[in-house]
Write a structure and sequence with these properties.
The chain is mostly helical. About 65% of the residues lie in helices and about 0% in strands. It has ten helices and no strands. The radius of gyration is 20 Å and the shape is globular.
Amino acid sequence: MDTSIGGRGDRFPATQWSAIIAAGSTDPTERERALDTLITAYWKPVYKYVRIKWRKSNEDAKDLTQGFFAAAIEKDFFKSYDPAKARFRTFLRICLDAFISNEEKAARRLKRGGDRVLLSIDFESAEDEITRAELPAPDALDEYFDKEWVRSLFGLAVDNLKAECEAKGKIMHFRLFESYYLDEADEAERVTYDRLARESGLSTSNVTNYLAYARREFRRIVLERLREITATDEEFRREARSLLGVEIE
């Protein structure tokens, strides 16, 4: 996705809650909410990374993905995270590699899902994306994990934007956003504002205004989700700068 939609820098989003910190909460409800947030943000890049780097079958990758998050919850992996040393996504990937390495050394195959259902995970969608994408080179797998994390974060934000636009009676705003920013056509064939105006029956000025609204809301949602999965203000600023090219005041 074109990250130029990041827009100008601004204050922190209203949501200041951090799932990384809340994952260590003694409040079961707060802890469960935090872990669900982290799993939602990370399960897809984890699954793809396991499939490709560790050359696991579809079924084994499912087992290991579920098993990794179950172990992270039971053994409190995230408690040792130090944001001064690395991004959380880097820390999580290192934990994942260590987990799989230990599993292989123990020569023990996990029972898929164990006795705990973490989330309703759509592994089929991730598998379909793997089959349609160009696979990374062996020496580019760390970068691949990072890119898949960004892809997952943006995908969740797009889903949120669509749901919010539908709830507010602004579905046309989302459809224009989808056509202009999410269409994967070649640059030469990229849709223009004038073409969107003709196809939607709106004026070009309305198309401009609708897209401005959708960009602003998308950016807000990305920042809110990003704030949830970072541990400190500094990490949040660093990730916002990296993903959206914005400086947060």
